[in-house]
Design brief:
Blueprint: H1 29-46, E1 48-50, E2 57-59, E3 64-65, E4 73-74, H2 77-103, E5 126-128, E6 135-137, H3 138-146, H4 164-176, H5 180-192, H6 201-213, H7 217-229, H8 237-249, H9 253-265, H10 269-281, H11 285-297, H12 302-319, H13 322-331
Antiparallel strand pairs: 1-2, 3-4, 5-6
The structure holds zinc ion (4 copies).
Length: 341
Amino acid sequence: MSTIGDNNDQRGGDSEKITSNKEECTSCEQNEVNNITEDIDSMSVSDMSTCANCGKEGNSDDMNICNRCKEVKYCNATCKKKHRSKHKKKCDRRVAEQHDEQLFKEIEPDECPICMLPMPLDASDSLIGSCCGKRICNGCRFAMFMSEEKDLCAFCRTPPPIRDEEIIKRLKEIMNKGNGDGFFQLAGYYARGIMGLPQDWVKSNELLLKAGELGCTEAYCNLGNSYRNASGVERDVKKAIYYWELAAMGGHVDARYNLGLEELKKGNIHRAFKHFIIGARAGYKDSLDIIKEGFMQGDVTKDEYASTLRAYQKRQNEIKSDERNQAKAAYSHIDALTQGR
Ligand SMILES: [Zn+2]
Ligand SMILES: [Zn+2]
Ligand SMILES: [Zn+2]
Ligand SMILES: [Zn+2]
């Protein structure tokens, strides 16, 4: 699932606007008024703070702040240095808490830029167009295919590429524009050695990292898998967890499921089920199954199970559409349609 791009852009086919829709008017007066008001607000919020070492009061904006937890303030660098050993334990705890706050946050799902429904969780139920770099759900692709415009891209109306080289060329163009999904797609071709490219895990992992940095959570999940499976890198579970966490924080449910399993292995039942519950609430079936088991074994309460099940069903209903159902039935027969274009 991609977090980049402009999923709120409903103007299918308006490719001119693709890169500019996030800009807001910088000249209108209302914006200036808002900016000034925000400035004033932030000034009054910051005002005075106390140095954690010597207790002297100072203006927050001028004070030295702990680089790690970003919460403790000092009147100068000397005070900060003096306080370091005393603050370390509390600082470590706060950093861990801040990390968990990020990690266990529920994320709104990405939407298909055409039908605006939450994206299906299975990556094979949507496809990234090499033309515009948009991930489109199979329901919208199928609806387009059944229309008179047949095999044009459902988003930008570009005809499909015919040859493998053309696909690669197009991908490189969207990659040059900073499209993380483009890097992700190319990484997949190297991982499988298809589209006239050699099989190359090292190259694939490099592309996954770049894709992840550009906001493609699926890329971070796959990079984590590479570290777990020793594909092109030495096996390193710590690094696998690091990348799965980045993916999960971006809303990736497979990655979160893997994190849950790792916590189970360590015996951290509570943390494990926190992951599974978030995943199941986002509509992930494997997570729901494990919660069901957890409920029967007493690791999950009845209320937790019931509310998770309700959220799961609600999300499942949101993801469903007639077009997507039709696509599922049709695409299981028409393999060519699901090949990367
Ligand atoms: Zn001080
Ligand atoms: Zn600190
Ligand atoms: Zn759609
Ligand atoms: Zn397109």
